[in-house]
Structures are given as structure tokens and as C-alpha cells.
Amino acid sequence: MALMPVEEALARLLGAAEPLAAETVPLAEAAGRVLAAPVVARRTTPGADVSAMDGYAVRAQDTATIPATLRLIGESAAGRPFPGPVEPGTAVRIFTGAVLPTGADAIVIQEDTTRAGENVTVNEAATIGRHIRKAGGDFATGETLLAPGHKLRARDLALVAAADVAEVRVARRPRVALLSTGDELVRPGAGAQAHQVIVSNIYSVSALARGAGAEVIDLGILPDNMEATQRGVRAALDGGFDVLVTTGGASVGDHDLIAPALTAQGIELAVHKIALRPGKPLMFGRSSGGAGTQVLGLPGNPVSAHVCALLFLVPLLKAMQGLAVPAQPDLRPARLGADVKANEQRMDFQRAEIIGREGDLPVVRPLPVQDSSMLRNLARADVLLVRPPHAPAASAGDPCEILPLED
């Protein structure tokens, strides 16, 4: 069976992604969530003309000839506006953020004045509108500030709060179930013997999923037994999860039971076997009935699982929340810092380090050992160097493409 290109596999995966339902959350809990409805300002900000500096509110024409001495008639502070007008020949002491009194049309900063009792002498002529923040200069009531599909960042929360919006409509977090398979697997700290393997996939894959906005439930480790595997898969499909992620058992050996177990539970595998290194034995399908559960079968190899989760699981979760996701890997330009060999038919994602910059482009060098079981090199890498299928040999200094390991 021919291997499916990475771009086609990702397009199929994203094509099956359906937006999740929306929910309303308090603004204090909205960081990192994706808007499902626009944020519309409920007030105008600033709500009135206000001072941008500490100084004096004046009529500019009263300072046309300097020095000009004006009579102080009061002060305007933030939250405590001066109640009356500024008449000819008068001034009001004003502080940053305070409302501009009626009749005033300029601010003279305090450094340009000399005060003597109840009089202030202006030493620099004022300019109409100088140092004044106009009402609505930031935004106005009814203005759309943020659109659906926007992921709320820390600075967005300040904008939403200033718009007098206390709650926002966001996409529900995807619910992800994670199943590991393999008789050889044990948990960290369990005292693994030489013939056993400490399960590591669940921690990296879970972290990637949570970073993409999901809630993750670890459903444990299944033995290499068909009955137990089918039972575990069935329980996960009945658990109301949006996505079921399996790690291990995705190849075609006697102990690779995930594909037949999924098929036995009615999952039609739209993707199985990708032209990808590392991570060829990747599966994707969807359960029937109701909204259906998306199923993503990752390889058991820890590096392969991480790369595949980065390439496929993270975009899937983002798309389900309404984020715009390109239907191909989000590659960035770079330059090679070392010679690389010609590639064969699979798209190759090599662990690489950034060793410098050439203009705006990072210069990257693949790590010397690319064995997909080497977790130290995965942790050491800065990026993945992407080699297209059948790419010819390339030399240091040639252009290349990379995939960030972090968002």
C-alpha cells in the first residue's frame, strides 16, 4: 500500500474537524480560550476628553502671549472632575487621566509653568488639543474589538475588561482521552526492570494537547491483548470524549492491536501509514453515531509520537476550537548550517539546533544522531529541520525549512 503524503493526511484530518459548541466563561477564566462570538465594546474609552499629562487645563488663546499669568480656580483629578467651566483668564490644576473641564482646550505641562499661590504663570504657549486624549480615542460603544476565532492573550483580557465586558463566548475545550498500549510499559518511579520501558509518550503528548487548549484524561496502559484492547477502546469511545489518542500498537506486528481493535469498534481509518519520518505508522479515523469521536493513533516510539502529535493532534485541536489552521505543516524559512544528504520518499523531520542567524533567518544544523528513540536529542533540539520527499543533497548555506517545536 502506498504511503500517504503528510499534506494529504493533514488535509483529511482537518477536513473532518467540526467546531465545538460554545460556552460562556468569566473573563478571569478566559485566558488562552478561543472566541466563539465577537467582543463588542459596551462603553466608549476614554469616556470623555482627559489629560495625558500632569499640568494645567487652559484656554489656548489665553497663552498666546507669554509669559501669561492665569488665576487657579480648582483642580481635576482622575475620578474627581472639576465641576465648573474654565473661564477666560483662569486655569485648572489637572492630573493625568483626569477629565478636561468645560471651556479648556489645551494642557500646559507643569514643567512649563511657575506657580505662585493662587496664580500660575505659563512660560510656553499652549496648542489646542495638546496633551489631550480625546473621548473614544481608543474605542467606542458598539465597536467590534475582537472577532470569533481569536485566541485570547493576556493583553486581550485588558482590552475586553476596559470595554466593560465581564464574560465572553468561547469554544468549549476539546476533551481528549489518552490510551497507551504495550506489555513492556510501566509508569515512571515504578522500578522498571531491564526488559521494561518507562512510558513517556503520555507526558509529552498530554502537554502538547493542553497547550493547544484541551482537557486531557489519561485512561492508562492497555496490555497487548485483543480483548483488553477492544474493551479499552470501547470505554474510551463511550466516554464522551471529542478525541481519542492512542500511543503504540499502530504498526502491523503480531502485538500491534490498535488498528484491528479500532476497526472492530466501527472506526473507519481514513489515514493509515504516512510518508513521514519519524512516524510512518500513524492512524486517523472517526467513530460513527452522534457527533462522533475523532481517533488519532500515534506510534509508540516516543520521538515519533511527539512529532506526530505536533504535526496532527495540535492542528486538529486548534481547528475544533475555531482557530484558522493551514492545511499543511506550518513551516518557516531558514538556512542550513551543515551539509545534508539526499532524502528518500518520506518527508523527514530531523531534530536540529539553531547555531546562529543570517539576516532574519536562523541557521540550523541537524543533530548528529537521528534515531527516533533518542529523547535526549529531542529535548536538546530547537526546531525540526524538514526535508521534503526525494529532496536532493544540500550544502551549508542553502535555504531550508523548519518546524518550530513550540508554538
Descriptive labels:
Molybdopterin biosynthesis moeA protein, domain 3, Molybdopterin molybdenumtransferase, magnesium, metal ion binding, 18% helix, 407 residues, 6-stranded mixed sheet, alpha/beta, metal-binding, 4 domains, transferase, Molybdopterin biosynthesis moea protein, domain 2, Molybdenum Cofactor Biosythetic Enzyme, Chain A
Structure, explained:
With about 400 residues, the chain is an alpha/beta fold. It folds into 4 domains: about 5-20 and about 170-320, MoaB/Mog-like domain (Molybdenum Cofactor Biosythetic Enzyme, Chain A, 3-Layer(aba) Sandwich), CATH 3.40.980.10; about 30-45 and about 140-170, Molybdopterin biosynthesis moea protein, domain 2 (Alpha-Beta Complex), CATH 3.90.105; about 50-135, Molybdopterin biosynthesis moea protein, domain 3 (Molybdopterin biosynthesis moeA protein, domain 3, Beta Complex); about 330-405, Beta-clip, CATH 2.40.340.10. About 20% of the residues lie in helices and about 30% in strands. The chain has 7 helices and 26 strands. The chain has helices at about 5-15, 155-160, 200-210, 225-235, 260-265, 300-320, 375-380, and strands spanning about 20-25, 40, 50, 55-60, 70-75, 90-95, 105-110, 115, 120, 130-135, 145, 165-170, 175-180, 185, 195-200, 215-220, 245, 270, 275, 285, 295-300, 330-335, 345-360, 360-365, 385, 400-405. The chain has a 6-stranded mixed sheet, with no helix packed on it. Strands 16-13-17-21-20-18 form a 6-stranded mixed sheet, with helices on both faces. Strand 8 (about 115) and strand 9 (about 120) form a beta hairpin. The longest helix is centred in the last third of the chain and has 19 residues, at about 300-320. It is elongated and about 90 Å long.
